[in-house]
Design brief:
alpha+beta, four-stranded antiparallel beta sheet, extended, Serine Threonine Protein Phosphatase 5, Tetratricopeptide repeat
């Protein structure tokens, strides 16, 4: 009742009860939030506030309500990209809170700038404004931080950053903007992949987060650091299996139990925590408190029940690191794919090895320095020639003296196809090894998704494509270089990149990420120098000035694109012909 009148709800989508027992109902279609006691006596109606902060086109359709321990009220409105509507404990409108942001890639920025330069009335009329997505759920955590979900906006799927944890200033402190909180892969249903929608959320007293995927009916269980504990539930389909859902609509956590409603079945499903789940949760709570050593027994008990629990291996790694056993910490960190703990333990273990073998390491370094000094001395005094093969010497000298080396290659024919091919194969092998066998702290290798054929095409294929395209273009542009010479120059120019990637491969097993910043600089510098060598070499073999090289290089890149397109077209045609022949064969066979 309100002012003697009976209120009716129309498609109310959200409800919340604060610590004083006040019930807040998001009466969506009636565009209001109803505040009442347990007997149904309405104390206040939160209608659309009158404020300059409210846009004129704003549509007030409250779907979720949350109230923190201090009495601040947060209302999520359907379709609102401004964030949650915020009221003070005195029910004064304070503004909008914690709006999502629009993510823009470099290509988006370039496209926007291009559109501005080439804008006209027709383009302006067809412009689409990219707006942030609206919250689909909003709850208050035990620390009074606001937890939100943004599962789906209109027809667009939110693939990353579906969960936000907002501090009192409205800033996301979870830092999961690039993290996909759902599955990276989903199956197909009737040949179509359905969108995952993390639309509902709740948080228990320990800060563990439970998120409901309303498409597949699954519940994702995370801790406060976004570590995934478990995924349970599922889509019912045409079955009536317990623990599955046809149209899941809401989730709530109560004393360790997870409650999920199904709008189609009109059911309430309660999931109770198992003994194993409680062990994992208790162990993680100790770990998150910072008492890593105390969590060791708990995690070891978890491992005895589930030897594939990566979270347990991470906890054990932290425990051993905390107790100073860096060897075991590194071992378990590898099993738990915990690169941060591995890097810390590796750094300390490396220091221990250096201290234990300091005199041996110093002696080896002194011997190496003396040996190199003697080699240089006798080489100059006795005029010893270390490399007698002229072509190999030319190839190696192309790094230090590219102008002279490429002149000899052109005028004296001192280039070698064998050496060039060996360098190209080495380039491919080193690239694969960098991707697969680099230091654990530096390398993220996914054996299931890694495609060595793609790497072959992006290394060997790119060199061959450039050589062919450049020869075709320069032949029409009075270039005197032969295909053989272009290929050799291109392969020789790879030497700095090969050296940089070889150094990277070795040093990632010696350094920790905090010390490896210069590795990126080294690779960039060597790549630039390789490009410089390529420019010098192409100019030499074609007898071009720099300006003409730039022009032919641009056309060579265009030629590469055309060649790839033609190859793809031929591949498609061959595939269609083979399919046609296969169909003919089947028809003949069965007739």
């Amino acid at each position: 009742m309100y002012n003697g009148k009976k209120l009716e709800f129309t498609d109310a989508q959200g409800i919340f009860v604060d610590k004083k027992g006040v019930i807040y109902i998001a009466d969506t279609e009636n565009q209001r939030v109803v505040c009442m006691d347990k007997k149904g006596n309405v104390s206040k109606l939160l209608l659309l506030p009158e404020s300059e902060l409210i846009p004129t086109e704003f549509k007030y359709r409250p779907v979720k309500v949350a109230v923190d321990s201090k009495g601040y009220t947060y209302i999520a409105s359907d379709g609102s990209y401004n964030g949650a509507i915020l009221y003070s404990p005195k029910m004064e409108f304070l503004g909008f809170f914690g709006a999502n942001t629009v993510k823009a890639t470099a290509s988006d920025v370039i496209k926007k700038l291009w559109d501005r330069f080439t804008s006209n009335d027709i383009k302006r009329a067809a412009d689409e404004i990219s707006l942030p997505f609206a919250f689909t759920d909003i709850v208050v955590g035990p620390d009074d931080f606001i937890y939100t979900t943004t599962g789906k906006g209109g027809k667009s799927l939110i693939e990353t950053g579906q969960i936000c944890v907002l501090n009192p200033g409205g800033k996301d402190v979870l830092g999961g903007g690039d993290k996909n909180f759902a599955d990276s892969k989903v199956g197909t249903y009737l040949f179509a992949t359905l969108s995952q929608s993390l639309n509902n959320i709740d948080v228990d007293k320990d800060g563990f987060v439970y998120v409901l995927d309303t498409t597949y009916g699954r519940i994702f269980w995370y801790d406060s650091k976004s570590n995934l504990f478990s995924v349970f539930g599922g889509s019912a389909g045409i079955s009536e299996q317990k623990g599955t859902f046809s149209l899941p609509s809401a989730i709530s956590v109560n004393n360790g139990d997870v409650l999920v409603t199904d709008a189609k079945k009109n059911t309430l499903t309660v999931f109770g925590m198992t003994k194993f789940g409680k062990n994992v949760a208790d162990a993680q709570k100790i770990t998150l408190s910072g008492d890593f050593a105390a969590s060791l027994k708990n995690w070891e008990a978890v491992i005895t029940e589930d030897s594939n629990c990566q979270l347990a291996y991470r906890g054990i790694a932290k425990a051993y690191y905390d107790t100073g056993d860096n060897i075991k910490a590194m071992e378990y960190a590898r099993l738990g794919v915990d690169r941060d703990t591995y890097a810390k333990a590796f750094g300390l273990r490396r220091t221990e090895l250096i201290e234990e073998n300091f005199y041996l390491i110093a002696a080896v370094l002194v011997v190496l320095i003396v040996a190199i000094a003697l080699l240089i001395y006798f080489k100059h005094k006795k005029k010893i020639v270390l490399i007698k093969n002229t072509k190999l010497k030319t190839a190696l000298s192309s790094v230090s003296h590219p102008v002279e080396a490429f002149r000899l290659l052109k005028e004296k024919g001192e280039g070698s196809l064998i050496i060039a091919t060996v360098l190209l194969v080495l380039f491919y092998v080193i690239t694969v090894l960098n991707d697969t066998a680099g230091g654990f702290a530096f390398t993220v290798f996914d054996s299931e998704n890694y495609n060595a054929v793609y790497v072959l095409l992006s290394t060997v294929g790119l060199v061959l494509l450039w050589s062919l395209s450049n020869w075709l273009v320069c032949t029409l542009a009075s270039g005197i270089g032969k295909l053989r010479e272009i290929y050799i120059v291109t392969c020789y120019s790879l030497i700095p990149i090969i050296a940089a990637r070889l150094c990277n491969l070795v040093l990632t097993h010696i350094l920790v990420p905090d010390e490896g910043a210069f590795l990126g600089i080294l690779l960039t510098a060597c790549t630039v120098y390789s490009l410089f060598m390529l420019i010098i070499g192409i100019m030499r073999v074609h007898d071009y000035e720099f300006g003409k090289f730039i022009g032919t290089a641009i056309f060579s890149v265009i030629g590469m694109i055309i060649i790839v397109f033609l190859l793809f077209l031929v591949f498609m045609l061959v595939q269609q012909v083979l399919t046609w022949l296969s169909t003919i064969f089947i028809e003949i066979r069965y007739r």
